[in-house]
Amino acid sequence: MNALNNFFLIALPYIALALFLVGSIYRYTYKGFQLSSLSTQFLEGRRLFYGSLPFHWGVLFLFIGHLIAFLFPSSVLAWNSQPLRLLILEITAFIFGISMLVGLVNLLVRRYTTPRLKYVTNKMDLVVYLLLIFQTVIGLWIAYNFRWGSSWFSTLLSPYLYSIFSFQPDIKAIVLLPVPVKLHIIGAFVIIAIIPFSRLIHFLVPPINYIWRPYQQVYWNWSKRDVRNPEAPWSLQRPKNN
Amino acid sequence: MNVRSQISMVFHLDKCIGCHTCSIACKNIWTDRKGAEYMWWNNVETKPGTGYPTKWEDQNIYRGGWQKENGKVSLKGAGKRRGLTNIFYNPNLPVIDDYYEPFTYRYLDLIESPEGDDQPTARPVSLITGEPIDIKMGPNWDDDLSGTPDYARNDPNLKNLSAAEQEVMFQLERMAFFYLPRICNHCLNPACVASCPSGAIYKRGEDGVVLINQEVCRAWRMCVTACPYKKSYYNWHTGKSEKCILCFPRIEAGLAPACMHSCVGRIRYLGVLLYDAEKIEAAVHDDESRLINRQLDMILDPFDEEVIKSAKQNGIADSTIHAAQFSPVYKYVKEWKLALPLHAEFRTLPMLFYVPPLLPVMATVKQVDNSEGEKKMNPMAKYWDDNWLYDTSTKELWGTLDQVRFPLKYLANLLSAGDEELIKDKWRKMMAVRIHRRRVTVGDVSNEKADEALRDAHLTPEMADGIFYLTALAKFEDRFVIPPAHREQAIEMIDFTGDTKGETGFGIKSKIRRGL
Ligand code: SF4
Ligand code: SF4
Questions:
Q1: What ipTM was estimated for this complex?
Q2: Residue B217 vs residue B252, higher pLDDT
Q3: Structure pTM?
Q4: Among B134, B278, B346, B391, which residue's beta carbon has the most beta carbons within 10 A?
Q5: The domain spanning residue A141 has which CATH number?
C-alpha cells in the first residue's frame, strides 16, 4: 500500500511534470508546425457548438478555480467562511462541471459519428477524450459525495501540491483521503503528462498577447533605416519574423 | 511622410476570357496537396454569380472586413473582444460545404474493372473521406451563368437594384456577364492580420506581401472570417490557415507570379506603388463615399523629388524606386485613373485594382423578323430559330454609354462602393480611347468627334495612346515591372520551395506532419 501510494502520489507527479516540461519545450521549439488546436469546425460546424462551447468554458472555469485554490488557499477559505458564499461557489463549480461533461460527451459522439471527422482523428484524441471524461466524472462524484471540496482542497491538497513543487513531497495527509480523490489526483497528473503528446498542447499557447498587441503587423526582413548605411552590415539586422 | 513600397496589381476585366489558366497555374504550384485541395488562392468567377465561397460578398453571412459604427472602425466579425470570446466556436466561420467538398474520380476503375456487360464508370469520390459522393458543388459550378436561378440571381451585388432592373439583366436574350479573377489583395489595412489572435499573419515591409507564418498559426481560424474576400483558407489536414503568397519566391527571383505569367488574356499587370503609410489611419476612417479617393491619395508620385528622398530615407532601394517609376499599375491606377479596387467599402484598402469591363456591356439586342427566311429554308436545314439578334451596328460604331445593357448600379456595387459616376468615368475613358484609335488607324471618325470624346474623358491623345499600348500591345516587360529583390539582404527568399512541392508549398523545408 505504501509503495503504491509513494508511486502514484510522489513518483507519478514528478514523472508527469518532467515529461510535461521537457516534452512541451521540445515541441514548442522544434515542432512549431505541429502546434495547433487542430480545429475541426471547418469540417463540421453545427454540432461542435454543443460540444466545444460547454466543454471549453467549463474547463476554463474549473481550471482557474483549481489554480486559485492552489495558489491562494487562504483567500478561498476566507471566501468560504460564510456558508452562503461556500454554497454559491460549490454550486457554480458543479454547474461548470456538468457543462464540461455534457460538452465532452457531445464532442466524443460528434467525433465518432461524423464521417468526415474520422480522417482527422488519431488515437491520441480518443485517449484525451476518455481521460477527460474520467476526470470530470470523478470530479463531479467527489463534489457530490465529499462535500465542500473547495474548502478541504485548500487545507489538504494545496499543501500537498506545494510540497511537490518545493521538492519536499509530503503525502501524510492525503494518503488518508478516499480513493476517488486519489484517482482524481492521479488523473490530473496523467493529463499533465500527455499534454505534449496530444492536442492538449494548444492550451499552452493561448493568444494572450493579442489583448495588447496593435492590430496591424508589418515586419521588415532588414532594418529599413540601416540598409542604406554602408557601415552597417546587413547580416547584423535580425529579421523580426524568424 | 512615411513612404513604403507595395507590389500591386491591376486586372483588366475587359480582357479576361474566363479560361481559368491562372487558377490552374496557381493550384499546380501551391495547393495540390492534402487539406488544400479545395483552396483556390486564385479563382475566377462569373459575374453576376454567387462566387466562391458561395456569397462571399454578403457580409451579413460571413461578417468579414471592417465596419464603421459611430465613427469607430472595427472588425465586423472578429477583433480582440469578439475574436477571443468566440475562440472556442466561431459562429461566422464558413465550413467546407460553403466552398465545396473536394473530389476526384476513380479513374483506375475504368481500366481495372473485370469484364462485364456494362461499361465501367469512374465514380466520383470525396478527397476527404475517400468515399463515393454525389457532387453537389464544385469550383466554378456557376461558370458562364449556369444554374442562373440558384446562383446569378442570388448575387449579393444585386442589392438595391429594382426588380425591373434585375429582370433586364436576366432576360435570357439580353444576358451579359463577365469574369472576375480574384487573388488576395495584399491589403494595406488587412483584416486578416488584425484578426489573428496568435499574430501569425503579417505584412512584409519591403513589398507589402501578406503572409501567414505556418509555425505560429494555431488554427484559431479568425482570419477566415475576417477576410472579406475569403482569401484566407483553413487547411483541414494540417490545422493551419493558408493564403495567397503572391508567389513571393518567384517575385524575389524577378519572375511574375504564376497566375500572371500564365494569363492567357494578358489581363494582369504587376508593379510597385509607393504610398504614404501615415495616411492609412485617416483613409480607413473616412466615409464610404470617399474611401476610393482617399486610397488614391495615399499613392505617391514616384517622380516627385520629395517622395524619392523620403523613400530613400526609409530604406527603399534605388532599384525599387526605379521600378515604381515604370510601374504599369501606377499608370492605370493613378495617372489614368482607370482602375478601381474591389469592394472598397470593406475598408481593407485592397491593393489589387480592376479596370471595369466595357465590352459585354455595350452591345444591345433587337428583335428581327425571320419569318420570310424561315419559309424559304429547306426543312432539313438547321437554322437558329431565334428572333433576337445582338445589335452591335449602331450609328455610333460601338453604341453609347446610355445604351448599356448591364445596370450601372451593379458594377458600382462591385467596384466603386456604389458610386455610379466613378464607373461612368472609367467607361468614358475607355470609349474615348477606342474612338481616338479608330481615328488614328482607320480614319473614319471625324477629328471633332474624337477630340470631343477625349475632352469629355479628360484624356490627352498621348494618354489615350498610352492606354491603348498598355492595354492592347504590352509585352511581358511592360506588364510586369518587378524590382530586384536584393537577395543579399533578404531572409525568407533563401529557401527553394520546389523541394517541398505537394507538401507545404512554401517556406518550410521539413516534411509536413499533422500534429497529434
Ligand atoms: S484580401 Fe483578405 S487575406 Fe488578403 S490581405 Fe486582404 S484581408 Fe488579408
Ligand atoms: S488566365 Fe487570365 S484570361 Fe484566363 S481566366 Fe485567368 S485572368 Fe482571365
A1: 0.89
A2: B217
A3: 0.89
A4: B346
A5: 1.20.950.20
